Amino acid sequence: MGRLTAALAAERTHWKRRLAASRVRFGTLRTVAPTSRVFGFDRGLPIDRYYIEKFLARHAADIRGRVLEVADNTYTRKFGGDRVVTSDVLYASPGHENATLVGDLSSGEGLPLEAFDCIVLTQTLHLVFDVRAAARQVYRMLKPGGVLLATVPGISQISRYDMDRWGEFWRFTTLSARRLFEEVGAETVGVDAHGNVLATIAFLHGLATEELRPDELDVCDPDYELLISVRMVKADTGQPC
After folding, report:
1. Considering the entire predicted model, what is its pTM?
2. Which residues pair with 229 in a beta bridge?
3. Labelling 29: which of 40, 43, 49, 208 has CA 20 to 30 A away?
4. Which of 109, 89, 111, 110 is nearest to 100 (CA)?
5. CB 157 within 8 A of CB 207
6. What is the residue extent of each domain of the chain?
7. 49-61: per-residue pLDDT in tens?
8. Distance between CA atoms of 169 and 166, rounded to whole angstroms?
9. In the 8-state DSSP scheme, what is residue 112?
10. Could you tell me which CATH number the domain at 35-233 has?
11. Are 90 and 119 in contact (CB under 8 A)?
12. What digits encode the pLDDT tens for the residues 93-120?
């Protein structure tokens, strides 16, 4: 027993020394409070917005004709330019100064059918409890051959503003996002993940894009899906929904 005890003690000492040699130094991040509680908006461009804007820039040619966006048309104007003929803004309740449409993504109330060439739907679906119904309504609003450009959170902190007003209900993976839109009958569903462990830690702490290098942000680790992007094309069947 004495030899066994000594061997175990030696083994523990060995691993303690290895741990000490490789110990992570958290520095200013060793705190239970985030650096920013507003996703880094107070420090620069939030990291999830970096990925959102790269996604929209890559598919900017899809933002054309009659385009719908939620809450405001910032991305429609930024990435659609003169390809956009009509820019609509959807809001869930009346009185919003930017809204051209007031409607419910769950029930479809107030939403036109087969009206849009493109729908830009960033960071919205996680705020809708009946997310499958919302996906069906988005599909119905697109013209045949129309394109949805959507993003949803994968790994993210809560937005207290949204939680207290209408609720946050979901976080997604590439698999759940793909199935959500394949179920509605889309002709094409392209899904990508964005992020890595460093970007995710920085995002959760509320650091901004400017505090990481592009080569750090652009590494994609499939096990750290910070943001999910979806490009869906509605089937052009010639038949009404």
Report:
1. 0.89
2. 151, 192
3. 49
4. 89
5. no
6. 35-233
7. 999 999 999 999 9
8. 10
9. P
10. 3.40.50.150
11. no
12. 887 888 999 999 999 999 999 999 999 9
